[in-house]
TrEMBL record:
Annotated L-glutamate binding sites: R12, D223
Upper lineage: Eukaryota, Metazoa, Ecdysozoa, Arthropoda, Hexapoda
Any one Gene Ontology molecular-function term assigned to this protein's record: signaling receptor activity
Annotated protein name in UniProt: Glutamate
UniProt-annotated location(s): Cell membrane
Key words, A-Z: Cell membrane, Disulfide bond, Glycoprotein, Ion channel, Ion transport, Ligand-gated ion channel, Membrane, Receptor, Transmembrane, Transmembrane helix, Transport
Gene: GRIN2A
Amino acid sequence: MVMTSLMINSDREAVVDFSLPFMETGISIAVTKRTGIISPTAFLEPFDTASWMMVGVVAIQAATFSIFAFEWMSPSGFDMKSVSQAPNHRFSLFRTYWLIWAVLFQAAVQVDIPRGITSRFMTNIWAMFAVVFLAIYTANLAAFMITREEYYDFMGIDDYRLSKPHSHKPMFKFGTVPHSHIDSTIHKYFPEMFNYMKSFNRNTVTDGLNSLLTAELDAFIYDGTVLDYLVTQDDDCRLLTVGSWYAKTGYAIAFQRNSKYVQMFNKRLLDFRENGDLERLQRFWMTGTCKPDDHDQNATSDPLALEQFLSAFLLLMGGTLLAALILLLECLYFNFFRKKLAKTDQGGCCALISLSMGKSLTFRGAVYEAQDFLKFRRCKDAVCDSQYQLLRNQLMSTYSKMKQLEKELELRKLKSEKRYQFSPASPLRQRDIVRPSIISTEYANRYDHEPLRNRRNGD
């Protein structure tokens, strides 16, 4: 009887009798963890290509042209025909692009705000889209910007990088223990792989794992159960097994041919398997400080697909349609209802609403608009400022001349009043309404015009 880590195969079974397998095993691959670096394109990985195309080509362009079109068509917004009437209002397609990018990235830069209520509403919709976009992007970006441990994730020994080592540049360095069951299996089914790995073989399993830790080997191929056990015993937890087992078999007890003890051991092994003793022993002895499935927790995050980001685009689409409806209502108001509302608005409430929309409903509101328009129409350069000061001086000079002329007119008025003063007995003298007086026609001939004529002739 032989008690060791003996795997069942056809060559051994030809010379000995095996008991029932008490533990499963297969050919596995051990690799080491490496500290990875952040990819230069990690900032693009939170979204897939379709999502980035939707944001850059569809969302930004649609929002830009929508805001500019709504501002152009709005009665209270930008209009090409009224550019000369509003030189302070600087808004164009490229300024709209600047506004879109500034809102999207929340940049603290100076932007030109549209004047129309519809375009402003559309700008707020774009701001809501930007908030959702940045929240999702920031939350998913953290998963891609964290430095995590990397390893060679082979699918098994039939992986093309191992089975055809010359097809990959640079070629991987891997080996096994020579003259073992693993070595004979690879020699039988993977001759190219067997010839390549001869120079990288190690005498023992411990030497092979130490070569992984010192980066002398990229992978070490051996018995899956043995590798799982040794990986869990690594103090630094830098080792792990990857891929699926190849050529699955089991461990068994070897006896001489036609031994009488084979049936006795098979019966006891079945009893241990039925009452769970084999599983308990395996969990107790084959488990270490490092769990063999730790590398599954470091799996990379997948970029968000377009379906997961679709709600933000639906928000932008719904906001655009709602803004178009608001533009229609705004045009109807300014073209049909504004004049009627001005006649019926007695309290002034509607006038305040209309003034907030960019067009006054009353004459006083129009004055306020004119004051605001003149307030912000100021020079922005030195030449314009000098011309403004020159015109202002001319205006002050004209104003002083007007004051001087008013004084001269006052003096002439006083002189004229003195010339037209009447005598106390004149019937044209202003009467005292308190004292009674009687005017008779007999005094009509006594009215003397000569003094007045003489004064005029004297002048």
